[in-house]
Amino acid sequence: MLRYLVSLCALASALGVSSAALAASRGAVAQSRFERVVATGSVRGTVSSLDSSQLIIRTAGPRTGVINQLIFAANRITKDDYPYVYGGGHARAGRASVGIPGPGYNGHRRGFDCSGSVAAVLAAGGLWPAGSGVPSDAGMISELKSWGLIAHGIGTGPAEVTLYDDPGQHIFMNIDGRFFGTSDGAGGGDSRGGAGWLNDGAWDAYTPTYRRYHFIASALKGSRGSGQKVAFQVQSQPALTVGQSVQVKYQELGAGVLVATAVR
């Protein structure tokens, strides 16, 4: 039965509770734990894109491996601009669906909810059975743990995949420093709240409400050393051009965010 439960990731939206209000209620003291530096390192690559808050580079090597498959799927879903649909993507992992009555549901609109979107990306990388049913967020975590694919805590370094789960409420993911998921439905059915890369700073990654689980190295076999995109937060837009070769020194925060400290 657990496999076919639908996630409750839109609950806060359905009750009219804003993300800002939820964030404020958690307090700065709790947040500070996830702002601490837990690791440092450096990565070489070429500039893929940049703006005033984010620098994305592509590392050297062929575009192969599990992480690249996850990124390709996340790019595709983002480009298709699916709306938020409660229960969307649960019937068959990787496919948008009409879902069930709830935020965003109208019986015709196809889309994803939070766990449906995460499962779609995982299925593309062989980390969830493609075409199978998708349980609730807690059910997904339970299954992945039983298969020995995930462990507690954030992943470290540029080749990592971490799930952030508020059991029974919401789940999203981090792929090499970039956050992917839904924005709690954005009021239900609004395409702005649908599945895709999250460009809102992922404030909830800094909160203690979410439990963190990283995919173990063997699950991401073939990813290390392959050409993939890695995202870093920056204070301001660096004076770089797309295609430029760079070395980025970074600090990793307890939230799983990679922050560029020097680029040359």
Radius of gyration: 18 Å
**Biggest beta-sheet profile:** 6 strands, antiparallel
- Give the tally of structural domains: 1
Spatial order of the strands in the main sheet? 3-8-4-5-6-7
Mean pLDDT: 84
Secondary structure: helix percent:
10-25%
Low-confidence stretches: 1-27, 185-189
* Measured distance between first and last alpha carbons: 53 Å
User: Which shape, going by the Cα principal axes?
Assistant: globular
Number of helices: 6
Number of E-state strands: 11
Question: Order of helices and strands, N to C?
Answer: HHHEEHHHEEEEEEEEE
Protein topology:
Blueprint (H helix, E strand, L loop, with lengths): L10 H4 L4 H8 L1 H5 L4 E14 L3 E5 L7 H15 L33 H11 L12 H10 L3 E3 L8 E6 L3 E6 L2 E4 L14 E2 L13 E5 L13 E5 L11 E9 L4 E6 L1
Antiparallel strand pairs: 1-2, 1-10, 2-9, 3-8, 4-5, 4-8, 5-6, 6-7, 10-11
Helix pairs in contact: 4-5
Description:
The protein has 264 residues and is of the alpha+beta class. It has 6 helices and 11 strands. It has one domain. The protein has helices at residues 11-14, 19-26, 28-32, 66-80, 114-124, 137-146; strands spanning 37-50, 54-58, 150-152, 161-166, 170-175, 178-181, 196-197, 211-215, 229-233, 245-253, 258-263. The strands form 2 sheets. It has a 6-stranded antiparallel beta sheet with strand order 3-8-4-5-6-7. The relative contact order is 0.24. The model is unreliable at 1-27 and 185-189 (pLDDT under 50).
